[in-house]
Amino acid sequence: MDSLIPQLLTGLAGASSLFLVASGLTIIFGVTRIVNFSHGSLMMLGAYIGWSILTRLPRDPEWFVLGILLTVLATALIGVVLEVVVLRRVYRAPELFQLLATFGVVLVLQDVTLWIWGAVELPLPRPRWLRGFVEIAGNRFPFYDLILIFVGPVVLGLLWLLMNRTRWGTLVRAATLDREMVAALGVNQRTLFTSVFALGAGLAGLGGALSLPNASANLNIDLSIITDAFVVVVVGGLGSLPGAFLASLLIGILQAFGIVLVPKITLVLVFLVMAVVLVFRPNGLMGRPQAEAREATAAAPVIRPAPRELRILGLVALVLAAAAPLVAGEYYLTVLTDACVAVIFATSLHFMMGPGGMASFGHAAWFGIGAYAAGLLMQWLGAPMPVGLLAAPILAGIVAALFGWFVVRLSGVYLSMLTLAFAQIVWAISFQWVEVTGGDNGLLGLWPPEWARNPATFYWIALALAVSVALLLRRALYAPYGYALRAARDSAMRAQSIGLDVKRLRMVALVIAGAACGLAGAIFSYSKGGIFPTYISIPHSVEALLMVLLGGLQTVAGPIIGALVYTGLADILVRSTDLWRLVLGTVIVLLVVAFPEGIAGAARRLWLRGREA
Amino acid sequence: MSVLVVQGLSKSFGGVQAVGDVSFAVAPGEMLALIGPNGAGKSTCFNMVGGQLVPDAGSVLLEGKPITGLSPRAIARRGVGRTFQITATFGSMTVRENVQMALLSHRREIWQFWRPVAGRHAEEADALLAQVGLEAQAERATGVLAYGDLKRLELAIALGNAPRLLLMDEPTAGMAPAERVGLMQLTRRLATERGVAVLFTEHDMDVVFDVSDRILVLNRGTLIAEGDGASIRANPAVREIYLGTGATSGGH
Predict the structure, then answer these.
(1) GO CC terms on record (chain B) (predicted)?
(2) Is there a single domain that holds both residue B136 and residue B100?
């Protein structure tokens, strides 16, 4: 009981910081409909810029406030640059490509930050006036946390005034409800979008700068805060400011008490709350159903069997791949094995995302479940590789079926967020349940049996499995099931009215995708000799998205091409430059701007030019 | 025996009664038009029959069996075909494939993972397309069709389910006048040939009087008139809601 009030206050302080970041994210989403992955990076920049400014200013309160305000202006300015240079060019692109572009920005900003400020954490020494404590109900409570507690509601109040008492705010609210109508009324969308982005970025910068006295400027802020911010925004309801505030309180207090009461599952707790909220309120606590964008999004092109030329090309590639061990050295065989894993990883995601219409932000979850299934079977029962390779997809498929019950009732961004939440839960379990999973150290000693230990043999096994999975998935897509899945995506209403069971179709797609991906995880583990929580991390999930979107959603060959290009690109970059994130991020952004339909999609368009009505 | 019997159907939205105590029946081969001014409750009625809305009270019987409150999918399975006010087709497929989907679903062949769709029931699909006059466009992408052709494709898809009852919500909305009559006469012919009962809503009175056997008039959620074209035309209550009584000047 003693710790109740201090915990509550800590929770409230945490809630304020969360709200600052989440409010910017939700405003940006409301108006531009962009899920801004780089919002965490803006907060990170806010922390670093804040550090640079505050350490150069006198340490009095008024200078502290001035420093914070300067930081806000600086991040807002960076937001403007970002919007004008990148985002403005992708508003018309499909939702997922926008997401991909913002992830490219995350990568670029990571390297830029590293380059400017270095890899060392930068703590801000608290000035004397911030170091004080206040006595509340017999407990000493940090003075700075009290300030934070007040900042949240104050910012909410100011935002409310801005949104409800100014013409600009009215436009923002109108655009959140119906941006086409706002455009039709003659409002300049460009300035509106740019200013909204500036406001959101400024809020992120404020959050970053204010986090300094309690934490430090470090390179992990971006991805750790963006998941929390996503959770808050989704729980609150996308685009809703009061919802974001309510959700920040909920999550902040939950985190504060969770650490005391159930320290083992704090990471899981947050995402569990999100999953529960989404099941009962599919649009978040205060969100409304998303209005369909009226600008007709171009219908997906008709899928036709690959032309003969492409089949021949594929066959040639396959022969070359099979012959590779005769010429390639051991290092290249490892890269090629990784490429085989990547092909399964990407084709399985494509299966549920392209024809299934369910974009997963957490595809690595299945990868990890498959890997841990194989690893634990080996550790507990001494199961050999063939058993592991068989058990991995089965277990991943079973978990996918259980998870599918939650997910098939959602759609769009909410569905993607729930997949992200699920992957984070799996990651948290693998990370925190040390007794079983080995935690951060992972499970080691998972090697192929003697007969398959030769890199060439193992590569052939991986190649055979990758080709089989890709062909089986392709087969299913051209069979009635695959067509029905696509039908449900094209028009759920029409699909139901001819008697198709849309939920069940999607559920089965999830199980198939999960099972295939689980196999990829197991193969990968055997080739690396171990399993680590990083297999389930967000960047790994994003890699799968990158491969699929690079290759293109609309063709069956797309994810394969994407997987190969991505693996090759990443390998070359990692070996040739320290700034590989910068280069990769830039390439992603350029690709999204230049080929919004992916590499295979662009090739298909050029190929078909003049051949089809 | 009537294909569809609707008895005492009612639905309220937050205290506003959208449909109150509506009853009617449709016989095989009969075309029944549901008309009325905006907000009369046509779409609500329609969606309760089609399963998109669950009625507060009343029952819907299809060939004597209750289908009240079933899901749209279950209702489709029992032999109800449907076209939508805003066309809904499978945009990533060809015209023929759209119809093939309906045929595969009707034959319970959806849950197959091996044999490709290409060529399956293609002749039957083409025959259906020929009936609605789309045979020349079978290979084309659905996304490039003209709006009137999409409406006809919807009709072919609905027929792929071998329906006993066709529900058509504003079947000619968005079409040119000449096309409208063409589509509805086509429906008329198919209804007669196949003995399909057709329930449709429509704003174009030329179309309504041209093809329907009977007309139901809804106003403010209740049925105010029922009969053939001539009796509806002569009905003073109907004239009043469509034309006004003339008692107030400046009406439209």
Answers:
(1) plasma membrane
(2) yes
